[in-house]
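Hallway conversation turned thread

IA: we were arguing at lunch whether anyone had actually written out DUF2787 domain-containing protein end to end. Turns out nobody had. So, for the record, here is the sequence (135 residues) and right after it the structure tokens. Reply here if something looks off.
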Amino acid sequence: MKFSILDYKVLQFVFRADDQIIRFFNKPKKSDILPVKVKIVIPNEEEASGKEFLLIFRIDAKDFLGELEDGFFQLHFVVRFGAEEIIPENFDKTDWLESSLTEKGFPLVVSWLNNFFVNSGYNTYFTNNYHFEEM
């Protein structure tokens, strides 16, 4: 089944800078791994054509830095995909599909994060070290 990215949205973003967060994003070590929670959501047929689905990414500083005294970082990012065919039942239960979708959708998340940091006066942020977990 072929699918393509239709659009993306930031559903929620909360950022309050502190030293730990700035250090993690501006001077990442090779050992720093960004845990990203991922979930496939298929809207019901009343909400969509049956040919669309969502991939939700969630990044929370607590998942990689633990409890923070002053800082806060949480991002909920949604990528909407379209398919050529009507999406079958159990579509969201396929492991290869989730990995394929994350490979297509996650660069949008990293790009958005990079733009946020650059436009906020921080260093650029790119990562090759990330780990996807099911939400």
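OS: looked through it. The CA atoms of residues 76 and 84 lie 26 Å apart.
IA: good, adding that to the notes. The chain has a mean pLDDT of 83.
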